[in-house]
Amino acid sequence: SEKDITETGRAVAPVVETTANISTVRSERHSPWPPRHQLCLVNEASLIRIQDVDKYHSSLPKRCTSDFFILLGSLKRKRRMGDWSNYNLSFYLLLIIRFSLILLGIGSASGIKGWGGSHFGRAPILERFSWNMLDWAYPDATSRAAAIAGGEYVPQNGLPVGIEIWQNKLFVTVPRWRNGIPATLNYISLDTNRGGSPKLTPYPNWAQNEAGACGNGLTTVYRIHADECDRLWVLDTGTIGIGNTTVQACPYTLNVFDLTTDKVIRQYRLRPDDINQNTFIANIAVDLGKGGCDDAFAYMSDELGYGLIVYSWMNNTSWRVTHSYFMPDPLAGDYNVGGLNFQWGEEGIFGLSLSPIAIDGFRTLFFHPLSSNREFAVSTRILRDPELALNSYHEFQPLPERPMGHSTASVMDENGLQLFNLVDQNAVGCWNSLLPYSSANHALIARHDEALIFPADVKIKRGIIWMISDRMPNFLLASLNYTDINFRILTVPVSDAISGTVCDNAPWKFIGTNALWWNR
């Protein structure tokens, strides 16, 4: 069994416990959110027992549609009028559930459901963890109090931006944009934390998260990647602050950890030619080829320096790739997120995702500038060769636009399903890469104007989509309300999320050819 929405600091929302074909619904206290934000449950093989019409809100089927609430309102009016003689409550409940399933085109569904409503995607999402503000797992209360007193820990100054999952660890990165960040690379044990607001544990330890300890500690980390060889790829930007406050405390350094031993097995300092005075690297993608763990390349996007840095594990060297497609679109610098209007006009190449290996032995790297509504693509055959990478302008190809397509993160699974966050829409979208890249072949798989304000990162692990939302623009440009829930980590099964959408990739298997994606 698994618990759904958990302790949020204000109230406990409805909890669903699912075991085989039995589902029960429990509402411990009234949730602070309106009905359309309540948990939605569908388990067609289960019997849902409701003791009170008022508690229907804690057992709504799948997406809680307006039609459902019309039926619910009718039932509640009949209860107030005492007109129950001709109405079988069980029949109406089953009718409501079946009606919602038919309305959505869903034959069957199972699992734990949460965060439904009219601003939601195809399947309800599970809120795994949530925080008003971040906290760390200090050895004891005395050391925590000392850290606060000395300014080493300022509770309001932490913002989580990246996630990764490996076995029982959920990694969370926290850049040192402001003072008082105890550790930039952290994890949550999924064995001991089943919800709520867990404290972050520095990875691999406190000492190796010391800011400014060049070569020995991590200063600022953004996105990270765990590969199939049990290695965690971590680029330390070496920076403290952001924008005009940025201080380059240490050089840009790629650190690769052996996750089975928690030891650094490779540390590589980027060459001076890899960066420039504007460099800001916030994303990394790792390409494992057919040659195994040694046939590995890392691609790092330079958002403000407009470049792509390629690192070869086998040769332990790097090179910089430049292209006009790495630059922002001057017409796409206006943003509206969570009611906040702002301009990020200089943000270039950011999100990266890699296709499965195609029949020619190479992958396709998909990339996009943050301030752009367009995706681009290039074969890793070009990027892996430093000579080709510098002399193959026309091998880089533009794909069609996607409206309101500002995106910081994207990922593609082994079946060629691409997911990408849409920060203006408080949503995550999808594309089945066996179809041409066009808006007609995109779908929203998750959207919510409360739970997904600025979905900063998205990952796919073992058939589960993981998302983190963090209200980043408010943190940087306005302010956060620290009595509210500001940061959330949410999940949804891939199969549930894409079911019935154009992205549904069952039962096909990726057989890509690295052909021109837009001409298929």
From TrEMBL:
GO cellular component, one term: extracellular region
Keywords for the protein's UniProt record, in alphabetical order: Glycoprotein, Membrane, Secreted, Signal, Transmembrane, Transmembrane helix
Principal cellular location given in the protein's record: secreted
Stretches that traverse the bilayer: 86-106
UniProt key word Nucleus: no
InterPro entries, alphabetized: 6-blade_b-propeller_TolB-like, MRJP/yellow-related
Top-level division of the source organism's lineage: Eukaryota
Subcellular location: Secreted
Pfam families to which the protein is assigned, alphabetical: MRJP
Family from the record: Belongs to the major royal jelly protein family.
Job description of the protein: Controls the pigmentation pattern of the adult cuticle and larval mouth parts.
UniProt name for this protein: Protein yellow
Native organism: Microctonus aethiopoides
Highest classification ranks of the organism: Eukaryota, Metazoa, Ecdysozoa, Arthropoda, Hexapoda
